[in-house]
Design goal:
Elements lengths: L7 H10 L14 H12 L1 H15 L12 E6 L8 E5 L4 E4 L27 E3 L5 H4 L2 H6 L6 E3 L1 H20 L8 H10 E3 L5 E5 L2 E7 L7 E7 L4 E5 L23 E5 L12 H17 L3 E5 L5 H14 L7 E4 L2 H10 L6 H9 L10 E3 L3 H9 L4 E5 L8 H9 L6 E4 L8 H6 L4 E5 L5 E5 L3 E4 L9 H10 L6 E5 L3 H15 L2 E3 L6 E3 L2
Parallel strand pairs: 3-4, 4-5, 5-6, 10-11, 11-20, 12-15, 12-16, 13-14, 13-15, 16-19, 20-21
Antiparallel strand pairs: 1-2, 1-22, 2-3, 7-8, 8-9, 9-10, 17-18
Helix pairs in contact: 6-7, 6-10
């Protein structure tokens, strides 16, 4: 009604009021996170105005221009490893952090190397967050706890989703008695300092650096950070995590930039043998397993990352249900329902196919009757105790905590049941142990005692649902990226994969390549 056919009503409104109104769609699923964020921004609006004024004055401060303009990148985390991604970009006048994550799978290597001699939080001008996964955004509120008071640049969906994940991380850590690096007050401080950017919009973040975010195809609102240094002097792009193909949920990663000299790219599946099956094959495989287990009267646990993989699977399961492949409820536990609500609030960030369905066909798959929200511990207990076959999507995706571990403890002894892994399982996680075929798993109960759980349920791993590009796609991305960079740096992958990927790109494309270690510093200009 507001927009009218082909925007006719909107055009009439513009002519009459001489302003350009921006229609905002009411999401079909209400998000408590978005509601809380908007309340904070409204309530603290005067303080936020002052924060923005202060940031503006700092960005447009006068500097003494030097002939010898250099650019260095320090790798404070996520180099030759998956987890705690953190790059520190330094120039003579600016210090910028790109991503600031936590490695939830490894307590002794959980946080970035903030004790590196070159890093001083008081010198930090800006923080850029590529997407809302804890290994890229988990420590951002910790920066505010330790004195940072500057801007955080990201897309609006990233702001909302990372706030959700940070709160969830805090809740789980407290329940498990772990040391937490920040409080809910620090998460609120982070929200107040976020400056949201749309894709393709260039903004100054310092006297000599301009930032543009481009779609990365990984999760809702995920972005490739493109930095333009000086007046046409140098250009660097950091992919964060990318998916270089269309999915049901998102468009593929952007590969065209105005200028580019250095590309920093993820290597999660950069090893020689890391070739994933096609998405169609993965979907057929999933629905085939689901149909078999449901027919046997079993329960299926799918541990998922609440942001991205869960929503992708929901679309596949909704279609399978409509086609009659299975007839059982799909329970959503953990933050999945809330994350899905955020997805429904920003349909403009979804794929063309999804936008067509939601806007023009009036068909929102997320609202299907097959999905049931698990809202309490009692409801979880009822699902476990019930004899009905069902599918359970539960966080966390690597069984490092959260409701997925609770379900696993009760479902594991019964061979009728199954667990299906659809995402990356990091070294040292419970998920990796189960994947490798361990028949007994030690689980620490609430009273602190260790109990051994027999693993009799079926264990399946389905590659192809990953939000990361595999080896072929990564190679294709480097081939297609325009303009072709002079230098490619490999991060975010196990050591062997980073080294293999780096060596292959050097030989095939005759590029200067690096696979740095944590704490290495590289001068790119």
């Amino acid at each position: 009604m507001v927009i009218g056919k082909e925007g006719k009503t909107l055009e009439q409104i513009k002519k009459v009021i001489k302003w350009a109104p921006k229609p905002v769609r009411a999401p079909p699923i209400q998000s408590e996170t978005i509601k809380a964020i908007r309340a904070t921004l409204y309530r603290e609006r005067e303080e936020i105005k002052e924060i923005l004024r202060r940031i503006g004055r700092k960005i447009y401060r006068s500097i003494i221009k030097k002939d010898d303009y250099w650019i260095r990148v320090s790798f404070l985390g996520g180099a030759r490893e998956v987890g705690r991604s953190c790059l520190y970009v330094q120039t003579p006048d600016t210090k910028v952090l790109i991503d600031c994550g936590i490695n939830i799978a490894c307590e002794d290597k959980a946080f970035p190397y903030f004790d590196a001699p070159e890093f001083n939080i008081e010198d930090l001008d800006a923080v850029i967050i590529t997407h809302a996964h804890l290994d890229h955004c988990g420590f951002v509120p910790g920066l505010f706890r330790y004195g940072y008071d500057g801007p955080v640049y990201c897309t609006i969906p990233t702001r909302d989703l990372m706030t959700l994940l940070q709160k969830d991380y805090l809740d789980i850590a407290k329940k498990e008695g772990k040391i937490v690096p920040y409080t809910s007050k620090d998460i609120k401080a982070c929200v107040k300092h976020v400056i949201p950017l749309d894709y393709g919009v260039t903004t100054d973040i310092s006297p000599t650096i301009k930032l543009t975010l481009h779609n990365a195809g990984h999760v809702l609102g995920s972005s490739i950070a493109h930095l333009h240094f000086g007046d046409g002097l140098y250009n660097l792009a950091y992919t964060g995590d990318i998916k270089f193909e269309s999915s049901r949920l998102l468009e593929p990663a952007v590969s065209q930039f105005p200028r580019l000299e250095t590309l920093i790219i993820e290597s999660t599946y950069g090893g020689f043998d890391d070739v994933l099956p096609s998405r169609d094959k993965a979907e057929r495989n999933l629905l085939n397993i689901v149909g078999q287990i449901i027919d046997k009267g079993g329960k299926i646990l799918i541990p998922v990352f609440g942001v991205g993989r869960a929503q992708e699977l929901m679309l596949v399961l909704e279609e399978g249900y409509n086609q009659g492949i299975f007839n059982a409820p799909v329970y959503l536990d953990g933050m999945i329902w809330e994350a899905t609500a955020i997805h429904t609030a920003y349909p403009e960030y979804l794929s063309k196919e999804m936008r067509q369905k939601i806007f023009h066909e009036g068909d929102n798959p997320f609202l299907s009757e097959v999905f049931k929200r698990v809202g309490s511990t009692n409801e979880r207990r009822n699902i476990i105790d019930s004899s009905e076959p069902c599918i359970i999507l539960a966080t966390s995706g690597m069984l490092t905590g959260g409701p997925s571990v609770e379900y696993f403890k009760h479902l594991a002894p019964d061979e009728k049941n199954a667990i299906i892994f659809v995402g990356y399982q990091a070294e040292g996680t419970l998920g990796r142990m189960i994947q490798r075929g361990k028949k007994e798993i030690p689980i620490i109960s609430k009273n602190g005692k260790t109990k051994s759980i027999p693993v009799n349920l079926g264990v399946y791993t389905i590659e192809g649902f990953s939000g990361h590009s595999d080896r072929r796609q990564l190679m294709k991305y480097i081939r297609k990226v325009k303009p072709s960079p002079e230098r490619v740096i490999m991060v975010h992958g196990e050591e062997s994969k980073c080294l293999d990927f780096s060596d292959s790109v050097r030989r095939l494309f005759k590029k200067e390549t690096y696979a740095p270690r944590n704490l290495d510093v590289l001068r790119v200009k």
